[in-house]
Amino acid sequence: MPPAVFAAAQCAIGDGDLPANLALHLAFMRQAHEHGVDLLLFPELSLTGYAPALACGLAQDLDTPLLAPLRQLAQEAGMTTVVGMPLTVPGQDKPRIAACILHPDGSIAVYTKQHLHTGEDVFFSAGSGGEFLSVAGLSVALSVCADFSHPQHAAQAAQRGAQVNATGVLIGEGGYPADSALLQGYAQRHAMSVLMANHGGTTGGWAAAGRSAFWDEQGRCVVAASAAGNRLLVVSGQAGEWQGVEVSLAQHTG
Length: 254
Known about the structure:
By secondary structure, the chain is α/β, with parallel strands linked by helices. It is about 20% helix and about 30% strand. It is built from five helices and 15 strands. It has helices spanning about 20-35, 55-60, 70-75, 150-160, 175-190, and strands spanning about 5-10, 40, 80-85, 95-100, 110, 135, 140-145, 165-170, 195, 200-205, 205, 215, 220-225, 230-240, 240-250. The strands form three sheets. It has a seven-stranded mixed beta sheet with strand order 5-4-3-2-1-14-15. Strands 6-7-8-9-12-13 form a six-stranded mixed beta sheet, covered by helices on one side. A two-stranded antiparallel sheet has the order 10-11. α1 (about 20-35) packs parallel to α3 (about 70-75). The N and C termini lie far apart (about 35 Å).
């Protein structure tokens, strides 16, 4: 079986600027495809920015035209792509924080954030998680930011057979040491590699730390982005034999 290729799209987006954010996502997807990526993971609420007060107005249905060009490119590239946006929920007045899964066959699925940070419940409703992904023969569990602050979330994923935990986050400089140590600990404790995609710029008033990373099954950091900004982190290999590289998104001018 050929090695799996995973990537974190660390992006500096504009809050509420959907056209610019969409263009940035497409640029990341094209570059990831050039590197043969099987799974491309974007941060929490990547399409809209982490702007809770704007979330209700920015919320989309799962069949929104906003996702159409991303779904098309994911299909053309044969690349599972996970993007973040606030998702409208029938019968609820508050959207959920969603990780939308764009499959290579053109279909779409969704993971919704189960655990909300303090204050997020004013603007969002808690989600219900989602199914595992099967990518390059590996079982991948998703999580969104605060989900990973609950140890049982990672433990349950491991118990269900997840080999990779892919988490889209917004982590600031102050929280990065503790949060990255938590993710590294999960990788080591559960023998489950962890892919983390962080924001690369300021969003919702939070200055993201960047430094997206991948930890292998022993908890070793295979590769991490060196700073904030638009950076693509590409990791390839298989259990125990991973290698990674950081790529700047220099060609994007949108």
